[in-house]
Amino acid sequence: MKNVGFIGLGIMGKPMVRNLMKAGFAVTVFDVVADAVQVMVAAGAKAAASVKEAATGADMVITMVPNGAIVRSILSGADGVLAGAAKGTIIADMSSVTPVESKEFAALAAEHGCDFLDAPVSGGEPGAVDGSLAIMVGGDAAVLEKARPVFAAMGKTITLVGPNGSGSVTKLANQVIVNLNIAAVSEALILATKAGADPKKVYEAIRGGLAGSTVLDAKAPMMYSRNFKPGGPIAINLKDITNVMDTAKGMELPLILTGVLQQIMHSLKATGHLMDDHSGIVQFYENISGVVVKSDEA
User: Fold this and answer.
1) Which helix (H) or strand (E) holds 137?
2) What pLDDT does 129 receive?
């Protein structure tokens, strides 16, 4: 594994490419946003004029794009990744899509003699920057071992969950836990603020106990300091939660809390908060309670 094609240079993609180059990989990049490509070229990447060109000569091609429909369009067609990739090339989709879509993409790759891994990530922009992403993999163990050095340049933990689709469903489970946790933190800080307590002090008091969590540490300070600059925007998380609900519907599986969360996110979309960080879920509770979570010390 020496040459990597990387498609999708958004909030996550750019730092992931930087870490690949830092680890010694030659990376060819493509994005529909030309400025994003030029930023990475300045950092040492090679620009491709198309996704097909990004895949040509690559040992492994990574897609990191907003949704499954885009992944499908990138892989397929005369100018797609699979038209440019040689047999034996590993295609790794690190986007957040449904397990059904991942299985479809794996079948498309197999038709062209390529291996496929669904390998979504958790850790957000900070994890992408410092190379500490958690990578959840669906696919063949032998294929993962070939790809492991590439993943290791971007992530701290790399876990093979099962066959194709398993990585994607693990990411959906991750998003349920993360976003419902954020909603719970929001409700708790609304309660504390309404009762007259400083939310920063409440956070500091509970973070060392059973209520403590990575989500609490990452998102509570953003709430009480009114910093909703997106690391993980509500738009992306709403897409993921919608994928959760669609997947659950296909299995006739009731997910009560996640369904409520989806409606909260739709409300935030309607009120202009779609591009806020998902810590901005607290704004839904503020809007219905007339309370603003803000620390006097923030």
Assistant:
1) strand 133-138
2) 96
CB 238 within 8 A of CB 269: yes
Buried b (16+ CB within 10 A) or exposed e, 86-111: eeebbbbbbbbbbbbbbbbbbebbee
The one catalytic residue in 171, 200, 219, 239 is 171
Residue-wise pLDDT tens digits, 73-85: 999 989 999 999 9
The backbone torsions φ and ψ at residue 135, rounded to the nearest 5 degrees and listed phi first, read -110, 125
Tokens of 38: 């030029």
Q: What stretch of H or E contains 162?
A: strand 155-162
- Report the C-alpha gap between 272 and 270 in whole angstroms: 6
Decide if pLDDT at 189 tops 90: yes
- Residue 4 dihedral angles phi and psi, to the nearest 5°: -120, 130
Residue 167's CB is within 10 A of a number of other CB atoms, namely 29
Q: Is 253 helix (H, G, I), strand (E, B) or coil?
A: coil
Q: What is the pTM of this model?
A: 0.92
Paired sense of beta strands 3-7 and 26-30, if any:
parallel
Cα torsion at 32, 36, 38, 43 (round to 10°)?
-140
- Residue 298 predicted with pLDDT over 80: no
Report the distance separating Cα 223 and Cα 76, nearest Å: 42
- Catalytic status, residue 194: no
